[in-house]
Design a protein that fits this description.
With 208 residues, the protein is mainly alpha-helical. It is elongated and about 75 Å long. The chain has helices at 3-36, 44-69, 73-99, 101-113, 118-128, 151-160, 162-207.
Length: 208
């Protein structure tokens, strides 16, 4: 294995680890913020996205380690495909901030419309300091709600405030950049491995 090839593999592994660190850190920050306000477990969209992305990061990490020590072209192809999938996830996360706001808020609205979820709705009111969903009158409350903000406004401000939105853009944008570099490096390594295999196949003929 040439020195240049070793450097490329090391560089690709560092990029992969950087990507996983960026995404993992962002997901943990978002999870803690949502959980603190009782907004995570009741929203299936966040739950599915976070769980799927973390599983994908783990698989990506495993194949990145294998690619760093393997001479098989298919391993680098697999890492490339996984990188594209993760780039799609990061792009989806960025788009959802402004394109899917009503969809992301819908699970919370349903909580306030379903009497079976009164306890969860009350918990959201207490943690986000709001009353009701679209209006301040809450029929299922047995006490007086003293907050002057509807929960639709409070939750929207929590999830889509300017600071949070810019952080999402920065972190997921950085992950897209590092993944693009991983793709470029892995394609280069794939071509190198194929060239090495071509030499091995031609060597017996040349010796003969």
């Amino acid at each position: 294995m040439s020195c240049a090839k070793c450097c490329k593999k090391f560089f690709s592994l560092i990029l992969a680890l950087s990507t996983i660190s960026i995404i993992g850190f962002r997901i943990m920050v978002d999870y803690n913020e949502l959980e603190k306000h009782s907004l995570f477990r009741v929203n299936q969209y966040f739950y599915i996205f976070f769980l799927s992305y973390l599983c994908l990061c783990f698989i990506f990490f495993i194949f990145s380690l294998i690619a760093a020590t393997s001479e098989m072209p298919w391993v680098h192809v697999t890492v490339t495909v996984l990188s594209f999938i993760m780039m799609g996830g990061s792009i989806l996360a960025i788009i959802s901030i402004f394109a899917f706001r009503p969809t992301l808020l819908k699970p919370y609205e349903l909580l306030f419309a379903n009497e079976n979820h009164t306890d969860v709705a009350l918990k959201i009111e207490n943690t986000t300091q709001c009353c009701g969903w679209k209006n301040l009158t809450v029929e299922f409350r047995f006490d007086i709600c003293s907050h002057n903000t509807t929960c639709e406004v409070a939750v929207s401000n929590l999830l889509f405030n300017t600071q949070h939105t810019m952080q999402e853009y920065a972190f997921y944008g950085a992950s897209i950049l590092t993944l693009a570099l991983v793709v470029s490096t892995e394609i280069s390594l794939t071509n190198c491995d194929r060239a090495d295999y071509d030499k091995l196949e031609l060597r017996p003929i040349q010796n003969f």
